[in-house]
């Protein structure tokens, strides 16, 4: 039995828990049975009904007290512990995958998704052993667009996370309804969602003394992001049903949910596959996992050249 779902990730404050709450309500409204799985051992104030809670296995507060760790080290320990006890999570999920759409609410520590392998291993084992079809939904707070330096950092984080997780991946500018309250954007919103020509940001970066001294490094990083053209953003206002619905349509295309009702029928499958899906392969590109090592190596080479130059 194939099950579908989302891996919800993003930096702290990007709105992951709010997203899971809003998306679960929207899914129920359109008739899908949904189960939210909290895998954040520090998330003790959940606004949604939780089907599986990692705190039943391990709590961050207990780890920090017992091992004298800070929150970052504690989260790494918790995720390592979850990986070693993945059977516990699999048993909890087995009754749900028969008829539920799954939302995985992950911690906000970004190091877990581009430096450490534990979160990736947890996801990979679930995909392999439970035959899950998951899309990574990477939330980035829209206010980062108002600061060119922070925006470039968000692009680099998005790119590294895509390469590390090796899942169908959608980057989302969350809280887009609040973007005007953060300040005036240097360019129109499409510039920040399409990520087409980052050279325009260079002037604005040079106006900030903190960014100007890293001019060459920033340019090389922007070149890396543009050369592979993997990163772009959708937008989301979680309180707007149309906005949530448009994002869900995109997610359904990336994880294959749109084909779930064909039940193996070649005729029905061909009808869907041949029909116009309003799908732009250039705007939302996929990449082969065999390119992962090459791209990862290329980024390190560019970073080394920039630092040496």
TrEMBL record:
Note the Pfam families from the entry: ATP_bind_1 (PF03029)
Q: Which InterPro entries does the record cross-reference, listed alphabetically?
A: Gpn, Gpn2, P-loop_NTPase
Source organism's superkingdom? Eukaryota
Q: Which GO cellular component term is one of those annotated?
A: cytoplasm
Record-level Gene Ontology MF annotations: GTP binding; GTPase activity
PANTHER family according to UniProt: GPN-LOOP GTPASE 2, XPA-BINDING PROTEIN 1-RELATED
Subunit description:
Binds to RNA polymerase II (RNAPII).
**Protein task:** Small GTPase required for proper localization of RNA polymerase II and III (RNAPII and RNAPIII). May act at an RNAP assembly step prior to nuclear import.
- Identification of the protein by name: GPN-loop GTPase 2
Q: Which organism is it from?
A: Apostasia shenzhenica
């Amino acid at each position: 039995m194939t099950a579908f779902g989302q891996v919800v990730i993003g930096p702290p404050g990007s709105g992951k828990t709010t997203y899971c709450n809003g998306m679960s309500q929207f899914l129920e409204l359109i008739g899908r049975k949904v189960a939210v799985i909290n895998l954040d051992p520090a998330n003790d104030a959940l606004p949604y009904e939780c089907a599986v809670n990692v705190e039943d296995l391990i709590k961050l507060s207990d780890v920090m007290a017992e091992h004298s760790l800070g929150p970052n080290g504690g989260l790494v320990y918790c995720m390592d512990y979850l990986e070693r006890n993945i059977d516990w999570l699999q048993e909890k999920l087995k009754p749900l995958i028969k008829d539920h759409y799954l939302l995985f609410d992950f911690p906000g520590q970004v190091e877990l998704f581009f430096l450490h392998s534990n979160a990736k291993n947890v996801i990979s084992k679930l995909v392999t052993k439970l035959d899950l079809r998951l899309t990574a939904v990477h939330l980035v707070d829209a206010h980062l667009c108002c600061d060119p330096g922070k925006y470039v950092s968000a692009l680099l984080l998005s790119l590294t996370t895509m390469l590390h997780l090796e899942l169908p991946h959608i980057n989302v500018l969350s809280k887009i309804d609040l973007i005007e309250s953060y300040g005036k954007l240097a360019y129109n919103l499409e510039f920040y969602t399409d990520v087409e020509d980052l050279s325009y940001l260079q002037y604005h970066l040079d106006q900030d003394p903190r960014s100007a001294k890293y001019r060459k490094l920033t340019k090389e990083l922007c070149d890396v992001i543009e050369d592979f053209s993997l990163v772009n953003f959708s937008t989301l206002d979680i309180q707007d049903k149309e906005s949530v619905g448009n994002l869900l349509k995109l997610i359904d295309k990336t994880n294959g949910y749109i084909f779930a009702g064909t039940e193996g029928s070649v005729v029905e499958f061909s009808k869907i596959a041949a029909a116009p899906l309003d799908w732009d392969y250039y705007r939302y590109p996929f990449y082969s996992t065999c390119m992962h090592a090459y791209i990862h190596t290329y980024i390190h080479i560019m970073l080394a050249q920039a630092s040496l130059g």
